[in-house]
Design goal:
Layout lengths: L1 H12 L5 H7 L11 E4 L4 H4 L3 H10 L6 E7 L2 E6 L1 H15 L12 E5 L11 H19 L3 E5 L7 H13 L2 H6 L1 H15 L2 H15 L3 H24 L17 H10 L3 E4 L2 E4 L7 E4 L7 H16 L3 E5 L5 H13 L8 E4 L4 E3 L2 E2 L10 H19 L6 H18 L7 E2 L2 H4 L7 H17 L17 H7 L2 H10 L4 H19 L10 H22 L8
Parallel strand pairs: 4-5, 4-9, 9-10, 11-13
Antiparallel strand pairs: 1-3, 2-3, 6-7, 7-8, 11-12
Helix pairs in contact: 5-19, 6-20, 7-9, 7-10, 10-11, 12-13, 13-14, 15-16, 18-21, 18-22, 19-21, 20-21, 21-22
């Protein structure tokens, strides 16, 4: 119906505005009594030298009324009221025809790189790492729904001065037997102990140890490789549980041999200057970007520069997204400006996607201080809670383990993604496990409820249906039609919360309809009500899929 409005306006305006300009100008009225969609005529006043109200009157008189309940002019706006039955039929027909492709755009042939998750090896996967992981995964799914191919990269934190600290700590206090028995747990203890007793001398030892690692010392490399392999094994257990896949696990160490060429180019272009013994690039409106320390050791910026050049050359993406916490904003602003100063136009396609922190008791979780909540423990506890809930409410449920996993993991993911990414989130098991209200399980249960209805009385696709458009059904149709726009905006703003909030709204609206309607009543509208149920189920399932959440058919 929106396309009908656009086409009609384009015909009447006869080239005064492009189709895209008309679409951009259309508004959804704030109040329902003002119509379903409105076209403001204020920008046309200068062109036609008439009042917006008069222009609106003249245009409205030339628009065919078919498909509209009425068309009204009010204060310079043309307000369109859709014919509800025509509108509802158009929406349901489209959803049922396209099914899981509803809201999908044609493939563009272009690809984007998304750098996300990126935990540090030799450290446990904490709730603090959850945000980058689930936001990045959702953005990759949303990008592909919008027609772009997503290259998913897990830029592991497998290099840097922290490994000098860990090597020193292991040599001083570590036990091979204890590390082999419980690698991540024991390595974390060593890392925390280092920071508890660290003084200038110990920090100097750590810096020297990392320099030896950079220089290829065999013992240091062997320890580092061991730490890395054990860490990835543990990470993969979590990724598998959360159904998260990557195209590449190339971490910081992968770019060690790719940094010299970047530093050499910076020198050739006269951008590298000495500052207190270190090599930096001077920047506008921010501190200089540190490329090499006094001792010649490289930094995060050096490796990120090398990674960006490698990715642009090998993937030729239209954009690279870095899903990293907002506390790293300065770092990204600095090295991206370095790329600009090097004269590369593609610097404009490098985007930092920041997000707020996961807090515990109002404070940032810190691995150094041991104040950390492990994601594995949270997932295990949530899944166990769901199992108990199933035993109490639906003990005869089939596939209890699979359902508990889908609901438990979904609860954790949705708790994160329902929030606008820049907001900080307070870790709360109680809120995460609230199975009513604004939670993933609530949306999943709505989907399962619809499956139960359709199991009792399947929707007959080969049979015609009549839609009954009442006060409880109409909001569902108007929300279903919004889904493609929501998916587009979520990609445009790198904001998965738009999809999560949409799913919640649709679930609430359907449940209100369910509570006030005898869906399975045998009458002329039965197959129409089932068509509506089928359409809602399709869109809820696809919404949750985009967020990385499964939809059990029963709960």
């Amino acid at each position: 119906m929106k396309n009908t409005v656009i086409e009609q306006l384009a015909t009447v305006l006869d080239g005064t505005l492009s189709v895209q300009e008309i679409e951009d100008m259309l508004e959804k009225p704030k109040f329902e009594q003002l119509g379903d969609i409105a076209f403001p005529c204020f920008l046309l006043a200068k062109k036609y030298r008439k009042s917006p109200h008069l222009i609106a009157e003249e245009i409205s008189q030339q628009i065919a009324k078919e498909g509209f309940e009425k068309i009204e002019v009010l204060g310079g706006y043309i307000n369109f009221f859709y014919d509800k039955v025509t509108f509802a039929n158009a929406v349901i027909t489209k959803v049922l025809k396209e099914r899981d492709q509803y809201g999908a755009k044609e493939e563009t042939g272009k690809q984007i790189v998304i750098d996300y998750s990126s935990p540090n090896i030799a450290k446990p996967f904490s709730m603090g790492h959850l945000r980058s992981t689930v936001i990045g995964q959702a953005l990759a799914n949303i990008a592909e729904k919008n027609g772009d191919k997503a290259i998913r990269i897990n830029h592991l934190g497998d290099w840097g001065t922290q490994f000098g600290k860990l090597i020193v700590a292991y040599k001083k206090w570590g036990s091979k037997e204890l590390v082999e028995a419980s690698p991540i747990e024991e390595l974390l203890k060593l890392y925390v102990k280092f920071h508890e007793v660290a003084d200038d001398a110990l920090n100097d030892e750590a810096r020297a140890a990392f320099k030896m690692l950079e220089n290829g010392d065999s013992e240091s490399l062997q320890l580092w490789q061991w730490f890395r392999e054990e860490s990835i094994k543990e990470f993969m257990t979590l990724y598998d549980l959360m159904n998260i896949q990557f195209d590449s696990f190339a971490g910081e160490a992968f770019y060690n041999d790719k940094m010299p060429s970047v530093v050499e180019e910076l020198e050739k272009k006269g951008l590298l200057v000495e500052s207190d013994g270190a090599d930096v690039v001077e920047l506008e409106n921010m501190p200089p970007c540190l490329i090499k320390k006094k001792d010649g050791a490289t930094l995060y910026a050096t490796r990120d520069l090398a990674a960006a050049f490698y990715r642009m050359k090998n993937y030729q993406p239209k954009a690279i997204y870095y899903v990293v916490g907002n506390e790293q904003s300065l770092h990204f602003n600095q090295w991206i400006q370095v790329v600009e100063k090097m004269g590369y136009e593609w610097a404009k396609s490098l985007h930092h996607v920041p997000f707020g922190m996961m807090l515990k008791d109002g404070k940032k979780m810190s691995t150094r201080k041991g104040k950390v909540v492990l994601l594995a423990n949270v997932l295990e506890e949530v899944i166990e809670m769901v199992k108990q809930n199933i035993e109490e409410k639906n003990p005869n449920l089939e596939n209890k383990e699979e359902v508990a996993k889908a609901v438990g993991v979904g609860a954790v993911i949705f708790h994160d993604l329902k929030n606008f990414r820049l907001n900080d989130i307070e870790f709360s098991l109680q809120e995460m496990l609230n199975f009513e209200g604004e939670t993933g399980p609530y949306v999943q249960y709505t989907f399962a409820r619809i499956q139960s209805i359709l199991e009792k009385q399947p929707f007959k696709e080969n049979r015609s249906y009549i839609l009954e458009v009442n006060d409880y059904e109409w909001p569902i149709y108007t929300q279903l039609v919004e889904f493609p726009t929501i998916v587009e905006k979520a990609y445009e703003h790198a904001d998965p919360s738009l999809v999560a909030k949409f799913a919640l709204k649709l679930a609430r609206t359907f449940n209100k309809y369910y509570g006030n309607t005898k869906i399975l009543e045998s009458d002329d509208f039965l197959n129409g009500r089932l068509a509506l149920c089928e359409s809602v189920a399709i869109v809820l399932k696809e919404s949750l899929r985009l967020l990385g959440i499964e939809t059990p058919k029963s709960m």
